[in-house]
Design brief:
Length: about 240
């Protein structure tokens, strides 16, 4: 997969040189290219924004640099343009799975009050364009959202995690344990600050372990994400579960 990211803050994407994604890039499994939008400006100040038509707060990103950047970066190849925006469709695990099947993705990171709307409309004449939001909170630009989506998408590519099993079992996945969040996890030592690992996990009884994990996932989902499983009556959870 090739991913192009266009931003006025290219250094924001230094984290993509690290860890699993960095390793996948170094091995050639993943091709991520970051571009500075100001490379497509032609004035002395490398201007990328201007005042909004119709008035209103802040500034809007000018269409010309974006148009030239997308023309050069996409260069007629089949690619899908992803535009993070507060007003976008919610980005979910199913979207990460769908986009992991794409050959080329281009992320356009807006700033200020957003990108002139004609950029998306013009791009849509030549490629699929998706305006997406990673959540109902306000960020200062599209860079953090792009980092989130690139991580959610690329971790699903074969060979990136180095352990596809955990990607398949991840919660929120359309597979795995339905739509349940993951339950508690433990490792050595078996006793730590007077807390012991639940004995069932040491039992070697895989059936019992699976049942226990599912029960814990149900309890945690009911407590933290009742929207995922529908309201579960409090009495279904014992007191201990209500505390943590
Ligand atoms: N994904 C994602 C996002 C973003 C996001 C994504 C991309 C850009 C580009 C610029 N900004 C800043 C901004 C912030 C608020 C507004 C709304 N206006 C403010 C006053 C009247 C309405 C417009 C832009 C962005 C924010 N925020 N939250 C998410 N989940």
């Amino acid at each position: 997969m090739r991913i192009d990211i266009i931003s006025i803050f290219p250094d924001y994407f230094a984290p993509l040189d690290l860890s699993l994604i960095g390793r996948a890039r170094a091995s050639g499994l993943l091709d991520v290219r970051v571009h500075d939008l100001r490379s497509w400006t032609h004035d002395r100040h490398n201007t990328v924004d201007d005042t909004p038509y119709g008035g209103g707060p802040g500034m809007v990103m000018k269409p010309e640099p974006w148009g030239e950047a997308l023309d050069e970066v996409v260069a007629g190849a089949p690619a899908r343009l992803i535009l993070p925006t507060p007003s976008g469709r919610p980005f979910r695990q199913a979207d990460a799975e769908r986009l992991a099947g794409e050959e080329r993705l281009v992320f356009g990171c807006g700033r200020y009050e957003g990108i002139d709307s004609r950029v998306a409309a013009d791009a849509a004449l030549r490629m699929p364009v998706e305006e997406v939001s990673i959540g109902d909170y306000v960020l200062n630009g599209g860079e953090s959202a792009t980092l989130v989506m690139v991580e959610a998408i690329t971790r699903l590519l074969p060979g990136v995690l180095g352990n596809t099993e955990s990607a398949v079992q991840d919660s929120f996945a359309s597979g795995g344990m339905e739509n349940l969040v993951e339950g508690p996890v433990y490792t050595k030592p078996v006793m730590w600050r007077d807390q012991e690992v639940p004995p069932v996990l040491l039992s070697g009884n895989h059936g019992a372990v699976d049942r226990w994990r599912r029960d814990q996932a149900l309890r945690k989902t009911a407590r933290n994400r009742p929207d995922l499983v529908g309201a579960m009556p409090e009495e279904a959870l014992d007191r201990r579960d209500r505390e943590v």
